[in-house]
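call fold(seq) -> tokens
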Amino acid sequence: MTRINALLLLVVVATALYLVRVQYESRRLFSELDKARSQARHLAMDVERLEVEKRAQASPGRVERLAREKLDMRQPNPGITTYMSYPAEQPGPSAKADTP
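ret:
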């Protein structure tokens, strides 16, 4: 009978240690999940902020001003426009291959 009691005691102790380990892992994983969620919120806010900055940087007025000031570009007008024309295609030999 004492062997059964010793075996049962050993099983209870092993089960208790396993339960403690599982609870510890559960708390550790919950903590990591909370950190990941917090980081995801920060990243979402950064994405939102960057989208706003991108829209501000690509506004037509800003692009036009930068083109004028930094690239020395200006609106085209007929006085500075050069027109190119290509000669008409000359009819050449037939593109068909000799067929029997």
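The mean pLDDT is 87.
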